[in-house]
Amino acid sequence: MTIKKYIISAGLIFNKKNQILLVKHTPEFGSDYYWTVPGGSANENEDKITALLREVKEETGVDICKISKLVYKVKHINYKREWDHDIYTYKIDNWKGDLVINDPDNDTVDLKWFDIDKAINVLKKNPFRVIKEPLIDYLIGKERIKNWDYLEDKNGKIARIL
């Protein structure tokens, strides 16, 4: 078995009302539509920051002017699909542009500003534990965990490794 390595970058974008920008993603792996932060996989020979800039622009129309910090990193090894994901999530301090979807993959179908409480509620419905747990933890103010590690077996059972 050969495990394919992926780098994924995502951005936490807030407006002046302290609302977070979420994108609605098309169903995948048997899920329904779900809300998440903008981001996606790095292309071949693309670093995580370049991927972040490109993916956010494609999914939201926003140009990132300043990245504040790396908020958390997720390591997700998935033996069922033979993946090894490193997911980097950054807080964006400064951005410009009008909200528009220009996603060449057609994965993003909507985007919207959410108050933090409402965002947490819709993110709880996200079917992917490796996405929702660290993101909700950050939004409720538990910024203490910087690295999240998950292992998914061939049957799809996910365990968080502490």
Question: Mind explaining what this structure looks like?
Answer:
This protein has 162 residues and is an alpha+beta fold. The protein has a single domain, classed as Nucleoside Triphosphate Pyrophosphohydrolase (Alpha-Beta Complex), CATH 3.90.79.10. The protein is 20% helix and 43% strand. The chain is built from 3 helices and 9 strands. The protein has helices spanning 48-60, 116-123, 129-139; strands at 4-13, 20-25, 34-36, 39-41, 63-78, 83-96, 108-114, 147-152, 158-161. The protein has a 6-stranded mixed sheet, sandwiched between helices. The protein has a 3-stranded antiparallel sheet with strand order 3-2-7. β2 (20-25) and β3 form a beta hairpin. The longest helix is centred in the middle third of the chain and has 13 residues, at 48-60. The mean pLDDT is 93.
